[in-house]
Amino acid sequence: MNLRALRIPLISTGTLCIFAFAGALTGLVASPAQADDDACTARSFKVKKVEDACKKGGRTAAKTVMKAAVKKAKANGEKVNCKTCHTDIKTTFALTDNAVDDLKRLL
Ligand code: HEC
Fold this sequence. Notes:
- The protein is mainly alpha-helical.
- The protein has helices spanning about 1-30, 50-75, 80-85, 100-105.
- The N and C termini lie far apart (about 65 Å).
């Protein structure tokens, strides 16, 4: 009886440690200097600005370029969001047919 009661707190402390460790790792990966783990999937680019951003800061930097484009579109009174140009905005960032032309126009 007593043993089991003791074991549960032990396990949860261990689990917490693992989470803390994973959190620390995620923090590292998110920093621009460690961009490799967040690298863009595209190997050839059509938009120079995106290529430069991807090379320098991976997807994090690419997203900054994207956000600027969305902002500019909105300032023009256009209804644009990530899904206007990407059929998937979680893993692949696959492009819609209009994506490249639209982006060039907005940079
Ligand atoms: C106007 C169209 C457009 C909008 C809006 C847009 N994107 Fe993009 N995005 C592109 C294009 C085009 C590329 C690929 C550029 C190339 O191939 O040179 C791209 C590439 C990316 C990439 C790099 C993908 C990779 O790994 O190769 C990410 C990440 C990304 N976009 C995120 C976003 C996010 C997040 C948003 C919303 C804030 C967004 N995009 C909005 C057109 C757009």
